[in-house]
């Protein structure tokens, strides 16, 4: 089911991608009676240039050392992008235990404090927010209740209400977790287990096996203080071996979105805010 972490992570990923690949998208006939929603195992084998028996062994976890050529062929069949192919290779090869630390450097904390008009936060591979500045806390007031963004996103009604485009944001969040987290870690097993039990939405999206590293994008918020606004974000991996990432929100200068951020920044200092209605929204 892909709910918890699995001893056959490669097989789980291949099955999910096979089910998600429509026959007509890879030049196979879509008609007729099919027992599976996507490709059959023998169709994958033909398209990837390998025997059906070999592919079945891959899915079942009986073959654990596929060559890079085999992985590349499977990536082409399933239409994997760079993030998806990197994840496939990680599932197939020997995995080193990544380093994780909850300690944020003093220099990074100082930067966060200096960026008074720029929302920014530092998190680990599992969505635990390790440090954030005042404006990021104003955008995500739920951080005062729970420091894990995944739990907030799926289990906290007030946080969920911040996202008018919740489904798309949820897919992005789950795809990032699968791309970034250590698949062998007890921390991931615990988090996925909790969210699966408490959130049918999370269980549904986790079972898709989507993979997308977080780098850049756009978020739309419906905020209780300043109303609806959008920000772009950039995410940077800290090159200190900590496994941490820095995410910074920003808006086009002079835009209504930038005005909303400025008003929210003012509110974090004064506790009051006055925003004129935007006729264009």
Offer a concise description of the structure.
InterPro entries: Cro/C1-type_HTH, Lambda_DNA-bd_dom_sf, MLTR_LBD. It comes from Paractinoplanes brasiliensis. The protein is an alpha+beta fold and 281 residues long.
Low-confidence stretches: 1-5, 271-281
Strand content: 5-15%
At CATH level 2, the architecture of the largest domain is 2-Layer Sandwich
What structural class do helix, strand and pairing data support?
A: alpha+beta
- Helical content stands at 40-55%
| Distance, first to last CA | 42 Å
Order of helices and strands: HHHHHHEEHHHHHHEEEH
Reported for the largest beta sheet, the result is:
5 strands, antiparallel
- Would you state the CATH class of the largest domain? Alpha Beta
Number of strands: 5
Gyration radius (Cα, Å) is 21 Å
Please report the number of helical segments: 13
The CATH topology of the largest domain comes to: Beta-Lactamase
Walk across the major sheet and give the strand order: 2-1-5-4-3
Shape: elongated
Number of domains: 2
Roughly what is the average pLDDT, rounded to an integer?
A: 85
Pfam families: HTH_31, MLTR_LBD
GO molecular function: DNA binding
Protein name: Transcriptional regulator with XRE-family HTH domain
InterPro entries: Cro/C1-type_HTH, Lambda_DNA-bd_dom_sf, MLTR_LBD
């Amino acid at each position: 089911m892909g709910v918890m972490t699995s001893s056959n992570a490669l097989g789980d990923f291949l099955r999910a991608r096979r089910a998600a690949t429509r026959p007509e998208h890879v030049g196979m006939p879509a008609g007729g009676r099919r027992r599976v929603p996507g490709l059959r195992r023998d169709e994958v084998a033909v398209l990837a240039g390998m025997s059906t028996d070999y592919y079945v062994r891959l899915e079942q976890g009986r073959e654990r050392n596929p060559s890079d050529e085999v992985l590349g062929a499977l990536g082409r069949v399933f239409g994997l992008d760079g993030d998806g192919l990197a994840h496939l290779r990680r599932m197939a090869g020997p995995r080193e235990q990544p380093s994780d630390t909850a300690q944020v450097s003093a220099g990074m904390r100082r930067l966060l404090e200096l960026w008074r008009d720029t929302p920014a936060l530092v998190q680990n591979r599992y969505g635990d927010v390790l440090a954030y500045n005042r404006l990021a806390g104003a955008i995500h007031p739920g951080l005062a209740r729970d420091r894990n963004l995944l739990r907030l996103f799926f289990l906290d009604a007030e946080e969920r209400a911040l996202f008018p485009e919740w489904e798309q944001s949820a897919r992005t969040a789950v795809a990032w977790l699968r791309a970034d987290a250590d698949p062998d870690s007890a921390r991931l097993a615990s988090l996925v287990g909790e969210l699966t039990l408490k959130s049918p939405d999370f269980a549904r999206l986790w079972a898709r096996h989507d993979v997308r590293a977080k780098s850049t994008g756009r978020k739309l918020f419906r905020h209780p203080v300043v109303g609806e606004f959008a920000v772009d974000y950039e995410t940077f991996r800290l090159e200190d071996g900590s496994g941490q990432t820095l995410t910074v929100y920003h808006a086009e200068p002079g835009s209504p979105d930038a005005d909303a951020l400025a008003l929210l920044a003012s509110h974090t200092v004064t506790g009051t805010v006055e925003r004129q209605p935007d006729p264009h929204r």
